Amino acid sequence: MLFLDELGEFAPSVLDALRQPLEEGVIRVARAHGSATLPARFLLVAASNPCPCGGGAPGECECDEAARHRYLRRLSGPLLDRFDLRVGVDRTHVDDLLATEAAEPTALVRARVDAARAVAVARSGCLNAALTAATLDELAPLGERARALLRAELEAGRLTGRGYHRVRRVARTIADLHGDEAVDEPHVALALGLRVRLARGRSRGAA
């Protein structure tokens, strides 16, 4: 696993260099006297503030819209499209910080995840993230309402072809976590909800 904190602080050239290994699982190195293809399949986890100042206290962001736009522009669309999950995280509420009730134990969450992974491997011999576009219709068939929802997202331009297949893989996993064989509208809707768009703010010439 590779964890990149403060993703928005990395140079765009560095971030875009991740696109090929994320897509293909390999790194190709070419030199004058030869080339090599090296394995590079990994889980990328990244975190980033919404703006250069980190957002500050509620209502106290010090950045103007131009600064926010420049900051988030470093995270290119093709790079973000390669993330299966993009989750917005709000500031922790005071009641949550002061809560005395214990959260769900990690061991229970891990047991559910292990069970879902076992189902995926038994079905196809691999994890759902490794399913090819050609096998999704066979191993993650969509119900009519789920297909209609994805069509609407594609036609509205909110989902790319690459994102379409990633959402289907995530929806397959969500169905496995719930013990459901078919992938239907609730699974797809949740997968789409876990793929939020960045709020880049308004700038000249942009909506």
**Could you list the spans in which at least 5 consecutive residues all have pLDDT below 50?**
201-207
Query: Main beta sheet: strand number and arrangement?
Result: 2 strands, parallel
Alpha-beta classification: mainly alpha
Backbone shape: globular
Helix-strand pattern, N to C? EHHEEEHHHHHHHH
Give an overview in words:
With 207 residues, this protein is mostly helical. The protein folds into 2 domains: 2-28 and 36-83, no CATH class; 106-193, no CATH class. It is built from 10 helices and 4 strands. The protein has helices spanning 12-16, 19-24, 65-73, 77-80, 94-97, 106-124, 133-139, 144-155, 161-177, 185-193, and strands at 2-4, 26-31, 34-39, 44-46. It has a two-stranded parallel sheet with strand order 1-4. β2 and β3 form a beta hairpin. α8 (144-155) packs parallel to α10 (185-193) and α9 (161-177) crosses α10. The longest helix has 19 residues, at 106-124. It is globular and about 50 Å long. The two termini are 36 Å apart. 14% of the residues are buried. Residues 201-207 have low confidence and may be disordered.
List the helices and strands and how they pair.
Layout: E1 2-4, H1 12-16, H2 19-24, E2 26-31, E3 34-39, E4 44-46, H3 65-73, H4 77-80, H5 94-97, H6 106-124, H7 133-139, H8 144-155, H9 161-177, H10 185-193
Parallel strand pairs: 1-4
Antiparallel strand pairs: 2-3
Helix pairs in contact: 8-10, 9-10
Write a concise keyword list for the protein shown above:
single chain; 207 residues; mainly alpha; 2 domains; two-stranded parallel sheet; two-stranded antiparallel sheet; 10 helices; 4 strands; 9% strand; globular; disordered C terminus
